Amino acid sequence: MPRAEVLSATPTLFRDDGALDEAANTALLTWLHGRVDGVFVAGTTGEFPALDRAERRTLAALALAVFGPDRTIVHVGAASTREAIALTADALAAGATRLAVITPYYLPADAEAVRRHFAAVGEAAGDADLYGYLFPDRTGVTLSPEQFAATGLRGGKLSGAAAARLADFRAALPDARFWSGADTEVAAVARAGGAGVVSGLSSAFPEPFTDLAAAVEAGDTAAERAAQARADEVLAALGGTVEGIKEALRQRGIGNGRLRMPAPAPHVERIATVTG
C-alpha cells in the first residue's frame, strides 16, 4: 500500500500588534521541514478570510522558500472569482506549481456556478496543478462526486462532510488525488486509496501522523495502534481547532498563540498535557 502523505495545514502566525510575523512563520516552516511531507498554506487553519492579498503572497513565498514547489500547496481560494484569479497570479509569480481553490462561499452557489468559478481559476493557473477544496460545513456549498468530476480538476481536499465521502469521490474520479482534512483518519484514508491528509494538528504534532502513515504502509499493526492513540490524544487536547494548534505551538516556543479571527479561548492546561 502506498504511504499516505501528511501535509501540514499551517496556521498563520501574527505579532502582538496583529501584523503578520514573517520570522515566526519561517520558524514554523523550518521546524516542520523534514518532519512532514509538505505544507498547505493560507487555508482554513491559516485564517485565510482574515488575510489580505499581500499577506497571502508573503506566506506563499515563505513556504516555497523552505519546502519548494513540489511540496507546497498554496490555497488561492476566495469568495469572489476575481480575487481568486488575482491570488492565483500571485502564487504563480512566487513559484508555486500546486494550488488549491475552495468553492465560493457566503452567497449560495449551485454546481454550475462552482464549475464556472473553478474553470476561471483553472485558466489562470495554466499548467499548475489545481485542486478543489470542498468544505461544505463552512462554505454552505455542497458538490456531489459526480458534480465535482464535471469540473475537470485533478483532485482535491475534502473536509467536514465531504471527507466522509472520500470513497465516493475516489470512485467518481479514480485517477484523481484526494486528501482528507480528517487529521486522525490517516489509516482509513490510505486504505480507501486517498493521497493522504491535510492536517492542521500535524503543524504542532507532526510525529503521530507521520508515524501512523508509516505504520500503515508497513502493515505494522502494533505501531499503528500506538500512533493512532497518540494522534487521538492530540485531537482530544487541541480540539482540532486553530486556537488549540496555535496554543500548542506557543507552548513549543513558536509564535504567541494570537488569532485574528474571534475564537474561544484555548484549553491551555489540557494542551500542556500533550506538549509537556
From TrEMBL:
It comes from the Bacteria. The keyword Lyase applies. It is an enzyme of class 4 (lyase). InterPro entries: Aldolase_TIM, DapA-like, Schiff_base-form_aldolases_CS. The keyword rRNA-binding does not apply. Transmembrane segments: none annotated. Its EC number is 4.1.3.3, 4.2.1.41, 4.3.3.7. The active site is at residues 133, 157. One of its GO terms (molecular function) is N-acetylneuraminate lyase activity. CDD domains: DHDPS-like (cd00408). Pyruvate binds at residues 45, 198. Belongs to the DapA family. It comes from Amycolatopsis mongoliensis. Keywords: Lyase, Schiff base. This is Dihydrodipicolinate synthase family protein.
